[in-house]
Amino acid sequence: MRLRTALAAGATSVLLLGVGVGAAAASPGQTVTDLSAQTPEDLVATLVGDETAVSNVVYTGDALAAGTYSGFTDLGVESGIALTTGTAGEGGALLGPNSDDSTSASRGLPGDADLDAIVEGETRDASVLEFDFVPTEDNIAFSYVFGSEEYQEFVDTDYNDVFAFFVNGTNYATFDADGTNTAVAINNINHLRNTELYRDNPVDSGSFDTGLDGLTTVLGLSAPVQQGESNHIKLVIADRGDYAYDSAVLIQAGSFRSNTPPTAASQSLSTDIDTPLNITLAGTDAEGDPLTYSVLTQPENGTLSGDGPNLTFTPAEGFEGETSFTFSTNDGALDSEVATVTITVSPVVVTPTPSVTPTETATPTPTITPTPTTTATVVPPVPTTSPTWTPTPTATATTPPAPGGGLATTGADGFAPTLAIGAGLLLAAGATLLLTRRMRNSD
């Protein structure tokens, strides 16, 4: 447990290893150049770039307490400007690694009245950068990280170091805590509350390459401004309660920019009864900033699960009808308008499959109509020789017949003669042969 020793105004803690002058470096790649080697205008130019018209730049504080920095990659704000309550460069708490949990310097300077009102107490060793600027849009945004040697031992004490970012008199360095805009200060973001915004960096842990014992995640702010007119910015950090234990804020270079609110898209979706529905929330950001999605009202007759933008809606068992929920997006600084996702849960419609019942059909018995057969009768040519009649033994024939008289045969009643007509020829069936039967006289 660290012991806190009050420092008189202008005194320096024995833990302050030295006073940095000009460029300084600790961990490889890290540099800090304080205001002993550059001007406040250089800080503002690093912050806003060359395209924004700036005037009336004023720095209030110790020249060793503010400067520009680079090489702080793992903090999420790699390069930019730093304001501290002690020393920005070598010997201060900003440069890594963290080898001491009590780095402190007293500059013996007053605090800031605006910060006094925020933390409800007297602040000291304030470091203040102010300037006027003319924006080309109606909104600006910044990204920053706040850290301190006050963590974790002096959380929930009077040593509530604080940072503020005033635009036209209003502090926009705040975050939403249970629906309330809350200032960025030791007692508001730490390992006990709002922990999702806090990162711990114990001595010799190597967690983050900085000497600060604790720090916030990358925070964003957005502020409305008067487009095309002069606006005033005031960045300020200070100790609260005494002069001991350094705190710092690192503001990302070039993060000063115009910002428009993101959008959130409403949707109409459907699912079947008792069937979960996968939902992808939709939103856009004109500046390409990453978006976070927040469900504002839960659906009735069902539940949502998952993390935005990918959610799953599970309807209540047996529920049929329409339900909805609302959500918004945030680009790190601004919220979108509220969007609504409407879900229709429909009963399952069962379409019957047609059933075909075979029908027995009698096969008709075909009616066979015989095709008439034509029987040709071959009538042989008239033989050049007289036909020879060969009767049965009971028959006699006399040839040749008399001209024009036919062929005379004799025989018993029922006699069936056979007629040979020339060599190898027989009378064909069906041929007509005129026969004359003569009966013998008994006398």
UniProtKB/TrEMBL annotation:
<keyword id="KW-0812">Transmembrane</keyword>
<keyword id="KW-0134">Cell wall</keyword>
<dbReference type="InterPro" id="IPR019931">
    <property type="entry name" value="LPXTG_anchor"/>
</dbReference>
<keyword id="KW-1133">Transmembrane helix</keyword>
<keyword id="KW-0472">Membrane</keyword>
<dbReference type="Pfam" id="PF17963">
    <property type="entry name" value="Big_9"/>
</dbReference>
<keyword id="KW-0572">Peptidoglycan-anchor</keyword>
<dbReference type="InterPro" id="IPR049804">
    <property type="entry name" value="Choice_anch_L"/>
</dbReference>
<feature type="region of interest" description="Disordered">
    <location>
        <begin position="354"/>
        <end position="402"/>
    </location>
</feature>
<feature type="signal peptide">
    <location>
        <begin position="1"/>
        <end position="26"/>
    </location>
</feature>
<keyword id="KW-0964">Secreted</keyword>
<keyword id="KW-0732">Signal</keyword>
<feature type="region of interest" description="Disordered">
    <location>
        <begin position="92"/>
        <end position="113"/>
    </location>
</feature>
<feature type="transmembrane region" description="Helical">
    <location>
        <begin position="415"/>
        <end position="435"/>
    </location>
</feature>
<protein>
    <recommendedName>
        <fullName>Gram-positive cocci surface proteins LPxTG domain-containing protein</fullName>
    </recommendedName>
</protein>
<feature type="domain" description="Gram-positive cocci surface proteins LPxTG">
    <location>
        <begin position="407"/>
        <end position="443"/>
    </location>
</feature>
<feature type="compositionally biased region" description="Low complexity">
    <location>
        <begin position="354"/>
        <end position="399"/>
    </location>
</feature>
